[in-house]
């Protein structure tokens, strides 16, 4: 290995150990983590004095009798890399698949195992091993958090039991008397958390249009500690300039937090734009199959990451091992799912924009926002996402449309392989009081899935036709409309009157006798 490469590798190793061992020794408190080579070498030697040259986390011990730090200063998870400055040579689709979540496992599994345990045996009564209690750390969760950190270019990522638990952790970075500025178009659950929880705990909540930088600058006060936004916003799909927001926030020593649930890391990586905290409801695109709930917080600064790690452990909001496994599996197909759904979204948005009963279409693509908003979005994202909102001019029409749809299931959430539809004012954002709501009552939000777009377009046209007519929407049980064409097996007219045998009677009956499950009578 060449000298330059060797020095670079030493710096990488130093940064990895420093990030993982931060709370096991006294930091210099400067907050500057860029440093020169000599500073990193000095820090590396300080850590090596405690754990030696090896960074095999399974061999790390934390002696209790000789430690000079507080118990709460011990790391709750073993060594993991800092991906804040990591440049991955792989393309996004490969990054979702090429990842070894458990390189230290002696059996070298091709997939990360589920460590379904609550406790871990310790080396002795006077030492801690790398894990002790799953609330504090678990190998399956470590694998998920490392993979997410790599995708988001984060110093560290943390997995929580739900998207709301992740958002709540961000608000817990505030203390009494602090202020948080929040985008006026925000997810209903976050609005409820801010107005009915944070505000009652002494945190001042101020809503502002984050697409207007002048308005944001005027709203910042000495008490402002966090600016929180979404881009695109949920559900009106408003675009905020994350780069300029980050610059403005940092000029006032304020953190910028972005809920990027609508823009998974295969489309957008806000930390690279200067954002400090990125939140995901992993239930959506990271899962992709609507079969588990979870949340993620990705942090750019190692010092802030240690505070988030402390809150995750202290408040017991971490994600369980089995759900971590499901998200690890979901990530593998995320690029494929999102890419296919985006292709469908573009065609559906074009069709909706041409329909005479659709008043406005909102999505970060041509015809779905202003040219300036589209320029900003394209400068910070590589795709339009999979969400479309639109208005019809009539609440009744919107309801009839959703009730008549067969493939777009009427339900909250988004990001699934299945296409979904809802009316935010009465579903996902119903927790916002009507007098505080800024949403049109007739607004419909669609989450486009990976079905054949021809089937989706046909379903939308059928639903729009029913909504335009005076006919009641057809009754259905949630299946594809083509199931109606299947033949129905007629039930015998005397089926209800015919006595049925119990299981014991059937077992005692003669083998040659008639089967009680058959339609034919004896």
UniProtKB/TrEMBL annotation:
Positions of the UniProt region annotated as Disordered: 466-503
InterPro entries with a match to the protein in the record: Cys/Met-Metab_PyrdxlP-dep_enz, Cys_b_lyase_euk, PyrdxlP-dep_Trfase, PyrdxlP-dep_Trfase_major, PyrdxlP-dep_Trfase_small
UniProt keyword rRNA processing present: no
Superkingdom assignment: Eukaryota
Cofactor: pyridoxal 5'-phosphate
Alphabetized UniProt keyword annotations: Lyase, Pyridoxal phosphate
SUPFAM superfamilies per record: PLP-dependent transferases
Biased composition (Basic and acidic residues): 473-485
Keyword Ubl conjugation listed: no
Gene3D superfamilies: Aspartate Aminotransferase, domain 1, Type I PLP-dependent aspartate aminotransferase-like (Major domain)
Pfam hit, one: Cys_Met_Meta_PP
NCBIfam families: cysta_beta_ly_E
Protein family membership: Belongs to the trans-sulfuration enzymes family.
Alphabetical list of PANTHER family matching this protein: CYSTATHIONINE BETA-LYASE, TRANS-SULFURATION ENZYME FAMILY MEMBER
This protein's name: Cysteine-S-conjugate beta-lyase
